[in-house]
Amino acid sequence: MHxxxxxxxxFGDLGPLIVMAMGLREKGHECVFVANEYxxxxxxxxxxxxxxxxxxERYLALFNDPRLASRLKNLPFLLRExxxxxxxxxxxxxxxxxxxxxxxxxxxxxxxxxxxxxxGLRSVSVVITxxxxxxxxxxxxxxxxxxxxxMHRTPMWITRRTTPIAEHLATLYHILPGLNRLRKEVGLPPxxxxxxxxxxxSSAIMLLFPEWxxxxxxxxxxxTRHSGFMFxxxxxxxxxxxxxxxxxxxxxxxxxxxxAVRADDGFVPRMIAAAxxxxxxxxxxxxxxxxxxxxxxxxxxxxxQPVGKVLPHCxxxxxxxxxxxxxxxxxxxVPQLIMGQxxxxxxxxxxxxxxxxxxxxxxxxxxxxxxxxxxxxxxRDPRYKQGAQAASARIDPAATVSQAVETLxxxxx
Length: 413
What we know:
Blueprint: E1 2-6, H1 11-26, E2 30-35, H2 40-44, E3 50-52, H3 56-63, H4 74-82, H5 86-96, E4 101-106, H6 111-119, E5 123-127, H7 145-153, H8 156-172, H9 175-185, H10 195-200, E6 204-207, E7 224-226, H11 240-247, E8 253-256, H12 267-276, E9 282-285, E10 294-296, E11 299-302, H13 307-310, E12 316-319, H14 323-331, E13 336-340, H15 345-354, E14 358-362, H16 368-380, H17 382-392, H18 397-412
Parallel strand pairs: 1-2, 1-4, 2-3, 4-5, 5-6, 6-7, 8-9, 8-12, 9-11, 12-13, 13-14
Antiparallel strand pairs: 10-11
């Protein structure tokens, strides 16, 4: 069987697809990736063919744009900019797809739906975070207090009717015109009802998070299936300076600002201050750090390390709330403090807190006193360690990959 994996976005969007492709390859199937050129090395590192869709400069410009980190401008910015990926994704798929291909795409890479329709191929939509499903019965948490109040307090019968309208309005001025422009260019009829129906054309919708993290909703179609969190194997060695730092004292608090958001909000120094206020040692995982680890007393700064080899030796992890780091903390039973305000970050933080596996707060609403209190909870309160351990016991990475591979094989047959 032949599988074409297509995605836009950061490595957090790409990583789970690589894990599924590795499972398919073990069973003798062929897999090829279509994504921005920025990700070429990340894909080829695992031995998969790669077809570029979009230039590296545009990717870097997008992810370094301050609007990406703005709680007010983030969503309009992402909706508007995602349109620019539709045609490159479409063209990339047409270059590599075969008559027997199954197209597996991230739900935001909507150029893939047009390619599947044009080629007469089946497709599978992949959803990585609960908030992408716009859940109604288990409403998400956002950075807007008013939106949270309305979603959590409005009677269900009203929410069921208004949520599809809100979704349609959110995509009406950017996504829908952009996708219909592509469809017109390639000779396909326009979409009239909305993006949700376009995604529903897929033969299956795979949710890459477990049902205990966000339960199934009664109105979902039968082809919507939970799988679970996906984890890439740890590769590379731990920096010798990091190994020495971990061995030289008490377990530190790890701090990671993540790969998807570049924000000048003082995340790292604020978290360092909160940890040091409790006398905790600190390990900073900095994507911009170059060279060997640098140790200054109780603080070690290093490039990102293999999480499975480092995080188990940490008392807690502080991060923005990206789904990849959040899931890794749950798998490794490490309490986490999430401070975020855009995309899926607040919702991920809220769901972690409901599991008693960590605490969370909004970036703009957390002062030094609040951060100190939350840091003390995750680093020292056994309740959160126990919650993280309980979540970890429910995660079976091998079974999750096996289930996902079986789903994809069944659709491809």
